[in-house]
């Protein structure tokens, strides 16, 4: 499945796309679960990064 973060538009996915990508749509719960990963495509986990470690070398 292709997930586009921060997309502020409603989109309609075709049945073939949903079947091919094994996505379960639950309109009441407002979720779209990818069966292969268990990931909710409408509420993806936040990705956090850590800043690089600064190394100083003294001669």
TrEMBL record:
What keywords would UniProt list here? Signal
Q: Which residues form the signal peptide?
A: 1-29
**Organism source for this protein?**
Macrolepiota fuliginosa MF-IS2
- Top-level taxon in the UniProt lineage: Eukaryota
Q: What is this protein called?
A: Uncharacterized protein
């Amino acid at each position: 499945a292709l997930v586009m973060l921060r997309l502020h538009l409603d989109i309609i996915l075709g049945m073939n796309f949903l079947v091919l990508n094994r996505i379960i749509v639950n309109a009441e719960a407002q979720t779209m679960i990818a069966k292969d990963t268990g990931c909710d495509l409408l509420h993806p986990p936040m990705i956090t990064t850590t800043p690089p470690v600064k190394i100083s070398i003294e001669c």
